[in-house]
Amino acid sequence: MEKCFNKNDTLKSVTDIDDADVQLINQYTTRSFDKDELYVFRLVLCDNDIDRDNEAFSAEALEEMGRLFVGKTGIADHNPSAENQSARIFRCQTQKIEGRKTAYGEDYIRLTAKAYIPMNSNTEKLIQLIESGIKKEVSVGCRAENIVCSICGSDVRKEGCSHIKGREYDGKICYHILSGISDAYEWSFVAVPSQREAGVIKNYRYGRTEDKESFLEQLRNGNYKSVNADNIGVLMDYIKELEEYAGYGRAYEEELRKDYVRYGSMCLDSINISESCSEILRSTAKKLSMSELEKMTAIYRGKAEENDFISPQFMSDEDILPSLYEDDRHYNI
């Protein structure tokens, strides 16, 4: 999920590293670094405007993330390997941009951060890519506990709602408000963001959903991101339940095919069709849908009953249907 920022607001190098910055950075190092050993740059992590997924962080969520992202390492393309670590955030703050409003009319607020990279032969290429603007867009990963519909105020993760993101209701755009940020995972350099203004990508996880009906309602409403490691158990339990019902359905379908062949043979044999009706009907039954099988079986059953083909269990076929045995024909059902 992505955020929108102007080109000049995304990443900028910082040449005037002060003593306070160095002190904060050295909290994360195993030895003390001097100013001339460090490269520091500023970045924008996210904001409170509506993004292309028709979602927006609340102002409170930005404050929460500002606390949680301090100390988090930067990687590339969300690949969580130790070798992939490239930088670390040591300071975060929210910033209100005067005179700018969000799409829903609130003051525009963004979360900015400072990150550092040790300057050495291994990081020289990365620093050059940042300064040249090649490494510019970033993405953040976090967990949002509350996903609220802007129209009705329902938590779509817990309650669900009938409103669809991106549609207008009485002149108001529907979007989801993300809040209750409980964790921040990492931030990444990315190659191609899908933000309108080449901004910041955001990722978040839904919390665990125990209520199956609420979970399924989210999927029906297109909230496919509700499927994650936290509530995969709910989905697996539902799949297991469906598999059990599918077993019953297959057994019913098999019995229905047998009835289709049985009653169909009785009716078609009675009009002197020369070919083996049973084989033809078996082949046909495999091609019919369940509803077609039910309809055709009902038709054949009705015809059979009209011609007294249904008999008490312990009466012989010769007693019930003597006319059918005059030419020694029999049923292969």
Low-confidence stretches: 1-15, 193-202, 309-333
Query: By helix and strand content, what is the structural category?
Result: alpha/beta
Strands, total number: 11
Mean pLDDT: 76
What's the alpha carbon Rg, rounded to whole Å? Answer: 34 Å
What is the strand content?
Answer: 15-25%
> Topology as H/E string?
EHEEHEEEHEEEEEHHHHH
What is the count of DSSP helices, taking H or I runs of 4+ residues? 8
Name the helicity range: 25-40%
Query: What is the overall silhouette?
Result: elongated
Largest sheet: 9 strands, mixed
Concise structural overview:
By secondary structure, the protein is of the alpha/beta class. The chain is built from 8 helices and 11 strands.
Keyphrases for this structure?
333 residues, alpha/beta, nine-stranded mixed sheet, 8 helices, 11 strands, 31% helix, elongated, disordered N terminus, disordered C terminus
Any chance you could write out the topology, listing elements then pairs?
Elements: E1 11-14, H1 19-25, E2 38-47, E3 55-57, H2 59-68, E4 73-76, E5 87-101, E6 107-118, H3 124-131, E7 138-149, E8 168-169, E9 172-173, E10 176-189, E11 201-205, H4 212-220, H5 232-269, H6 277-285, H7 290-306, H8 317-320
Parallel strand pairs: 3-10, 4-10, 7-11
Antiparallel strand pairs: 1-2, 2-6, 4-5, 5-6, 7-10, 8-9
Q: Could you explain how this protein is built, in words?
A:
With 333 residues, the protein is an alpha/beta fold. It is 31% helix and 25% strand. The protein has helices at residues 19-25, 59-68, 124-131, 212-220, 232-269, 277-285, 290-306, 317-320, and strands spanning 11-14, 38-47, 55-57, 73-76, 87-101, 107-118, 138-149, 168-169, 172-173, 176-189, 201-205. The strands form two sheets. Strands 1, 2, 3, 4, 5, 6, 7, 10 and 11 form a nine-stranded mixed β-sheet that branches. A two-stranded antiparallel ribbon has the order 8-9. Strand 8 (168-169) and strand 9 (172-173) form a beta hairpin. Helix 5 (232-269) runs antiparallel to helix 6 and helix 5 (232-269) runs parallel beside helix 7 (290-306). The longest helix is centred in the C-terminal third of the chain and has 38 residues, at 232-269. The radius of gyration is 34 Å and the shape is elongated. The two termini are 60 Å apart.
